[in-house]
Automatic annotation (TrEMBL):
Residues 1-28 are annotated as: Disordered. This is CAAX amino terminal protease family protein. It comes from the Bacteria. The keyword Protease applies. It comes from Bifidobacterium thermophilum RBL67. One of its GO terms (molecular function) is endopeptidase activity.
Length: 425
């Protein structure tokens, strides 16, 4: 009888009674049932058992094609935004450079003039700003033209909205001025800008603050800059233009309120795309802060009032009666400004959620706009120069304009040097 060769027990697979059905006694498979049931093979130890720590399996993030496309678009937009904002920074740097060189030449010409002491402050202010408005700002278009504009629709603004925004600028301006004075107080001996404006005729003040400054500054900081950068985000364009606007004044006393005013003016322009709204707002703000307020404060002799208050109550009353007309004018103006200040706070608080912004065609990732706009060569150079201008203004404010020992036009030249870095807001 032929018998099949039997496999060694070590090579037989594990079997259980439940797995092997009963076989007939005379079948060929009956020999397998004669062996005892073997236990199941033990599971191999988890890899690696000889390391004290367990290494988790590598996890690779799986990105869908749409996610890859969005990631690539964000990278491309960030590179384009850095390029365009860098050009804006170089354009602003060019403006500062040309302005400083032109103002220096004016200063030299004034110093060499035999009649420099007789030149009015208003003429000096006009001369010091002439290179800025007539040469530097127009030249910046040679650089800015490399960044294309974003075509937008134009919208009207109701008179009520315009008035509300004007009232809202009052607390922004006063709070900003207070912050600027607090920062400058430990370093500055006097406010050279205020002293220069107080001694300037009102015609020159009006031309500078209510005509030249609104037209040229709004043209550059709102029209030219925002039109070329708003495609990367409205908020980013407004914030960056306001920051540049504040630094461009080159004066720490003006930086904070110029920045706050720049936010309002930028929002007005973005929502309307009409430059004359922001120009008119800028002119009204400057009319109040640069002309009316100076005229009001000139109606009283504050030094005489201070001396009288230090003496006695009777002396104070006599001085007040002597300056009664001026005191009434100052009091009425103060009450009006206080009312506008409170009304402006109420308007800002109640309408804080009504400031709307829309996504731009090349909208940057949320939270990366300002970082992208400022993190490039052109903007970094401009920021450094703007900060240096602000510091130099603090240093120059400690130099007396007309002290003993001035020869010829040195006093006027020093005052003109103090005006460098001061762009009338």
């Amino acid at each position: 009888m032929h018998h099949e060769a039997q496999m060694p027990q070590s090579q037989l697979p594990p079997q259980t009674h439940s797995q092997m059905p009963p076989q007939p006694a005379d079948s060929a498979d009956s020999a397998y049932t004669a062996y005892p049931v073997l236990p199941a093979y033990p599971a191999p130890p988890a890899y690696p058992p000889y390391f004290p720590q367990i290494f988790p399996p590598a996890q690779f993030a799986q990105m869908l094609p749409q996610q890859w496309q969005a990631w690539w678009q964000n990278k491309r937009r960030a590179r384009a935004a850095k390029h365009d904002y860098s050009i804006v920074g170089w354009a602003l740097t060019l403006i500062i450079g040309v302005w400083m060189v032109g103002s220096f030449l004016v200063m030299v010409g004034v110093s060499l003039s035999k009649n420099s002491e007789s030149i009015p402050n208003g003429v000096l202010l006009l001369l010091s700003n002439l290179p800025l408005y007539a040469i530097a700002m127009p030249l910046s278009l040679l650089v800015l033209r490399n960044v294309p504009r974003l075509a937008t629709k134009r919208f009207d603004m109701s008179p009520g909205t315009f008035i509300k925004l004007f009232v809202a600028t009052v607390p922004i301006m006063y709070i900003g001025a207070i912050l600027g004075n607090l920062v400058a107080a430990p370093f500055s001996a006097e406010d050279t800008l205020d002293s220069a404006l107080m001694n300037t005729d009102y015609v020159s003040l009006f031309l500078l603050t209510c005509v030249c400054a609104p037209i040229f500054e709004e043209w550059i900081f709102r029209k030219e800059i925002i039109d070329r950068t708003r495609k990367y985000g409205e908020k980013t364009a407004i914030i960056v233009s306001a920051l540049c606007f504040g630094l461009f004044h080159g004066n720490v006393r003006q930086f904070f309120y110029a920045f706050g005013l720049g936010l309002i003016l930028g929002y007005m322009y973005v929502r309307t795309s009409k430059l004359w709204y922001s120009m008119l707002m800028h002119a009204l703000v400057n009319l109040n802060g640069g002309v009316i307020s100076i005229w009001v404060t000139s109606q009283i002799d504050d030094k005489a009032l201070s001396r009288a208050m230090e003496q006695s109550a009777d002396a104070t009353m006599r001085e007040v009666q002597r300056q009664l007309g001026g005191v009434i004018i100052v009091g009425v103006y103060a009450v009006i400004m206080l009312a506008l200040f409170i009304a402006g706070i109420v308007i800002l608080v109640r309408n804080r959620k009504r400031f709307v912004f829309f996504d731009a065609p090349e909208q940057l990732e949320q939270g990366t706009g300002v970082k992208t706009a400022l993190g490039n060569a052109g903007m970094i150079v401009f920021l450094v120069i703007g900060i240096l201008m602000t510091i130099s203004a603090l240093v120059m404010s400690q130099i007396p304009a007309d002290g003993p020992g001035d020869v010829g036009g040195a006093g006027s030249a020093t005052m003109l040097l103090q005006m460098l870095g001061v762009l009338l807001g």
